[in-house]
Write a structure and sequence with these properties.
The chain is α+β, with helices and mostly antiparallel strands and 325 residues long. Helix content is 30%, strand content 17%. It is built from eleven helices and 13 strands. The strands form four sheets. A six-stranded antiparallel beta sheet has the order 2-1-13-12-11-8, sandwiched between helices. A three-stranded antiparallel beta sheet has the order 3-5-4. Strands 6-7 form a two-stranded antiparallel sheet. It is globular.
Length: 325
């Protein structure tokens, strides 16, 4: 409940999981620089483990896992009639926000920001840089998928312009306080990064599991927007919705690469999994078929620091053995 730190729990045995594998799972997570790990089943905590000096109250960054929260907030703003994702970005933040010719800049819509298809060059020296000099033409909007932070970061400006509220204030009013989260967006260089405790991350995952409904209250009433957020948003990278990663598709792309790889993004995970994924392996996994939410906070699990890494598939291999889906 909101304003209550007591969560319902369920034992591993009553969940029908293999309790003998939990110790190995925790050892693996510890070896992979994990700070917090939570598994919810039907909204109840089955597993919750903190490592080192990290505690239930410790705050940590979501990195790009916060993108999924921004996408949901955008849907709320559209529902309220404050913006239309099919309108061009410059309708909200003015022209000249890129270094593109006006006719090319005008092709970019809010939907392109949500789907990583702005066509702006992600191979610039600093792909976080939101200055017009860093936002240069690579392809027409909608014709190329590339994981690019800067156009996403400018969603903050779009939302501020559309709502007349700062990002933190609008997020608190529409999502955070309505589901009992803590935390805040904090500026870090060009980026706005969300920080919270692990249970607040789990609350957001639970909100996503319940299709943006919290205890009978629709946080986002527009089911078509939610369905669009959690399904393929374009035909270039089938494994990407609105700032949300999708499993179970016939192909997927990865950050920094233009290759299209065949098969599931996370082969060991259930096909219907969708996820908010951040740098250094910040994870919110949602599995509707299993009523699961899985949270992982910590430092990078390996050498790869991107949103998606081999850690995802290794972890789900262990969860698959334990849960038996």
């Amino acid at each position: 409940p909101i304003g209550n730190s007591v969560w319902q729990t369920q034992s591993i045995d009553s969940a029908g999981w293999n309790a003998s594998l939990v110790s190995d799972l925790y050892s693996y997570l510890d070896s992979k620089n994990t700070k917090a790990f939570i598994v919810l089943k039907n909204g109840k905590i089955v597993l919750e483990k903190y490592f080192g000096t990290f505690t239930v109250d410790s705050l940590w960054y979501w990195a790009s896992a916060g993108k999924t929260a921004t996408a949901l907030l955008t849907g709320i703003a559209q529902q309220e009639g404050l913006l239309d994702i099919n309108q061009k970005t410059s309708d909200y933040i003015g022209t000249g926000w890129t270094s593109l010719p006006l006719n090319k800049e005008n092709l970019i819509t809010v939907r392109h920001q949500l789907t990583m298809t702005t066509g702006l060059d992600d191979e610039v020296a600093d792909d976080d840089c939101t200055l017009p000099s860093c936002l240069i033409y690579k392809a027409d909007a909608g014709t190329r998928w590339a994981y690019h932070n800067a156009p996403y970061t400018l969603m903050d400006s779009v939302l501020q312009s559309a709502t007349g509220m700062m990002l933190n204030a609008y997020f608190r009013q529409k999502i955070r306080d309505r589901i009992g989260m803590n935390g805040a967006w904090i500026r870090n260089g060009y980026n706005n990064v969300y920080f919270s405790n692990a249970r607040s991350m789990a609350r957001f995952g639970l909100l996503m599991l319940n299709k943006a409904n919290w205890n009978g209250t629709a946080i986002l009433q527009d089911s078509s927007y939610f369905n669009a957020q959690t399904n393929s948003s374009q035909t270039i990278n089938l494994s990407y919705g609105y700032l949300t990663w999708l499993n179970g598709k016939t192909s997927h792309m990865l950050p920094t690469l233009q290759n299209v790889f065949s098969g599931y993004m996370i082969p060991n995970a259930p096909a219907d999994l969708y996820a908010a994924l951040g740098k250094n392996d910040q994870k919110i996994y949602v599995v509707p078929s299993q009523k699961l939410v899985v949270i992982r906070m910590g430092n990078a699990a390996g050498n790869v620091q991107l949103a998606l890494s081999s850690f995802d598939n290794e972890l789900w291999g262990k969860l698959k053995a334990m849960i038996g889906y």
